[in-house]
Amino acid sequence: MSKQQIGLLIMAYGTPYKKEDIVPYYTAIRHGRRPSDEQIDDLTRRYEAIGGVSPLARLTQEQADALAERLNALQTEYTFRSYLGLKYIQPFIEGAVAAMEKDGVKQAVSLALAPHYSRFSVQSYIDRAQSKAAELGGISIVSLKSWFTEKKFIEFWANSVRAIYDQIPQNEHDQTVVLFTAHSLPERILKDGDPYPEQVKQTALAIVDAARIGNYAQAWQSAGKTGEPWLGPDVLEEIKSLRRDKKYTHFIFCPIGFVSEHLEVLYDNDQRCRQLVESLGAAYYRPQMPDTDPLFIDALASAVLNACQDLHVSAQ
Ligand code: FEC
After folding, report:
1. CATH 3.40.190.10 fits domain 4-145+293-315
2. Is 260 in the pocket of ligand 1 (CB under 6 A)?
């Protein structure tokens, strides 16, 4: 029996490949409004602080390749071919859908490389893929909305947190806190009952449970400077309160809203959070990000294979 050909549309944020890409990239993030020179300089300075470019482009491609390879090794019913579609820089999501159409793909699964669903974030990836597919007419895409409940995703983070926890002397565990973070979003998402905050909370609780850790807290990071309120507490404020009120001396950072090393982790966490934690006389730790860890790739593969059950339904 011949295998069913499935397009695997992997959607991710995207990052500038070189300095000249920063302005168009940032303009795309701001929905076509060019940032001020001051904002551009500030972003350029942050990229310079992490070595000029972000490793995100390389890591996203590696994740896409590893996932397709793993999916094809795990089962014999389907052949997956991956297509990378980015939100704010080429190759764009629309181009990836057009490439699938050109290759004769009829059935596809899409997945965003972000664990938690928000109408503000993941839904915009999905809308762009679905509207291009509708425009072209020939492809049916099953879009995964979130995959934070995947057991191996939780296991990955639990193992990485536990590895750091175990390096800290037992008698200092009382002074150790695990701080879970995800990207902040404008507070107005709460008005429509967006599931994002609850999904982030559930992820943190599942990791705490699996890693058997004591003290933990949750905060939001990398909020935009748009003049409207964003979800809080902000991570920098939370660090100050935890240090002041609870006297913690070890801070383990888990940016569970992200899946690889990039600007938000390497700058916002590893530089800004670290500087603050150390200036307050405490120690900073940040476990390895999921990147292409086999447990993490297996978690994504499991989510995709689950979504394939819906393919059968829509193919009938
Ligand atoms: O190049 C890199 O390594 C960094 C890539 C990057 C990731 C990322 C993830 C998320 N963002 C989310 C929401 C917003 C909202 C705004 C916003 C702004 C920026 C800017 C840069 C940037 N984001 Fe991002 N984000 C990454 C990069 N993000 C650069 C612009 C300068 C700045 O504020 O730092 C505010 C837009 C506005 O001004 O109107 C909102 C969310 C995620 C996690 C989910 C996902 O990956 O899709 C949510 C990676």
Report:
1. no
2. no
94: annotated binding-site residue? no
- pTM here is 0.96
Examine the pLDDT at 2 and tell me if it is beyond 90: no
Q: Is 101 annotated as a binding residue?
A: no
Would you say the CB of residue 262 lies under 6 angstroms from ligand 1?
Answer: yes
Q: Which amino acid is at 299?
A: A
**What count of other Cβ atoms lies within 10 Å of the Cβ of residue 313?**
8
Q: What CATH code would you report for 151-285?
A: 3.40.50.1400
Q: Is 226 in the pocket of ligand 1 (CB under 6 A)?
A: yes
Ligand 1 atom nearest to 263, measured from its CA? 3
Q: Residue ranges of the domains in the chain?
A: 4-145+293-315, 151-285
Determine the atom of ligand 1 nearest the C-alpha atom of 257: 43
Residue 268 identity (one-letter amino acid)? D
At 273, is the secondary structure helix, strand, or coil?
Answer: helix
Per-residue burial over 141-165, b if 16 or more Cβ lie within 10 Å, else e, is: bbbbbbbbebebbbbbbbbbbbebb
Which tens digits make up the pLDDT trace of 213-267?
999 999 999 998 788 999 999 999 999 999 999 999 999 999 999 999 999 999 9
The upper half-sphere exposure of residue 26, i.e. CA atoms within 13 Å in the direction of its Cβ, equals: 20
